[in-house]
Amino acid sequence: MRLLFSHLKMSLSEALMPVKEPKTKEEAKALLELILWVSDKLNIGERDVEDAIDRALEGDWSLALDILSTYYVMKGIQAPKRKFQ
After folding, report:
1. How far apart are CA 59 and CA 30, in angstroms?
2. Residue 66: which H helix or E strand, with range?
3. Which of 8, 39, 75, 85 could form a disulfide with 49, with the two C-beta atoms 3.0–4.6 Å apart?
């Protein structure tokens, strides 16, 4: 059940707002600050946030980006629609 929920959450979040790994140190720092702010708004456990940040600092951004994607889903934030010509 947990796996199904995680997969559904990931599919929804990618459809609403694609979240990408940072490419520069400045982007990484800003994203980590955003993750801390978002985790506070979502009342995510301190241990989960610490684990996500530790993994991000080691190069695995999956948990940190999942926190951000979850916030986007909860708030209904969507990516801008692309105009095709």
Report:
1. 15
2. helix 62-75
3. 39
